[in-house]
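Obj: model holo form, ligand = L6N33NVT.
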Amino acid sequence: MNKEAATEKNKISRRELLKLSAFAGAGIAVGASGLGTFSMFADQLFGKTQNASANEMTVPFYGAHQAGIIHPQQTYSYTASFNLLTESKSDVIKLFKKWTEMAETFSKGNSYAKGFSNDWLPPKDTGEANDLSAAHLTVTFGFGPGFFQKNGLSRYGIGHLKPKHLKSIPSMPGDDFEDGFTGGDVCIQICASIQQVAFHALRNFIKNSIGTAEVNWMQAGFLNASEGKTGRNLFGFKDGTANLSPKDKPKQNKIIWADEKEPSWMIGGTYMAVRKIRMFLEVWDRSSLKDQEDTFGRKKDSGAPFGQIHEKDPVLLNKMPVDSHVRLAKSTKQEIFRRAYSYTDGVDPKTGSINAGLFFVSFQQNPDKQFIPMLKLMSQKDKLNEYTKHVGSAMFACPGGIKKGGYVGQRLLEGTLF
Ligand SMILES: C=CC1=C(C)c2cc3[nH]c(cc4nc(cc5[nH]c(cc1n2)c(C)c5CCC(=O)O)C(CCC(=O)O)=C4C)c(C)c3C=C
Ligand SMILES: [Fe+2]
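Output (holo structure tokens):
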């Protein structure tokens, strides 16, 4: 089949489009029968997903799914939660149009000010990413519960389109949140292989949202891994070993992408769970190697599960302490897709200890089934709790990918497909 014919085959028919537009407009969930899974749809609608073109260091912004979810983790991340200051839907649309244009521009490694200059106005782009590459920048948007409802009332006329599982994460034993480090109406996750490129994007998103949105919280993160190796967290353990492979599409459809019971704007979308988890490094560093390994049920050096030799060997639950982190996670028989980053926030002024930890992010199809029971079990029984404290929490619904010419949230805000 030649390239055009293949592209043609991937395109959805006009009749199907109309059918879908009607679903989208009415906010009716697409049934499983006949129309197939949401993710198959997403592929049909948007063509193939993101693949970084190695030479240009760019990750396509447009695709069936948003960038920055299954893309291999870049070294740096900035994640910010915003609250909307306006009750006007057209202001929100304007903001998302602008943010979309910027996200696309930055994903290509371009300046937002390209072709624009006026000596009498502040520069349109802050400039610190000029002369730097696109650095594999990805931008991922999510909507929090407050995007749909405020004070129990529908917001922007879209309350009825709130996805099924979108709500704040219920409070857990041991939660001790930093001031303001919860929730938010909108989330933007920015990842890149150059920190300055990632920060530049966030700074310009903020600059262009003044008056319409304000930052609720933000977090910087980092993660280094050698080629082909699993990165290590700040406790020195390989973290991400059992994560599903970004190549395993059938499993992604089961674990990550929204199902057909969701409103149609969630086609190709997912839920993003966030927990900021402080890790008590000094306490950990004073504990024995045996205690450290018992905490996870894996060997520190090799990453192998207890009773096994190699990192990727199957987990033997009965060889692990009953309160070990991995045994508890596995015993739920649920899977999530983790995309966490380490963070350091200086020194705790009260104790003088290092303020650092894991900015835990996971993507999943159904947080009520996959994530919350796991978190609950861990909050009650995990040996890891001796060394950690959950200091932030949020949940967002990430819409499906964006098609060229459209903007983030368009399918939700306008009831159209793109
Ligand atoms: C609710 C979900 C999870 C939270 C919160 C969480 C926090 C957390 N995890 C580590 C370090 C490791 N986690 C590992 C495995 C693992 N963790 C979760 C879930 C949560 N972790 C899952 C589902 C799994 C996979 C279990 C499995 O199927 O085997 C590991 C082992 C290596 C790996 O597979 O990644 C480490 C190490 C920290 C430090 C932390 C909070 C600070
Ligand atoms: Fe974990």
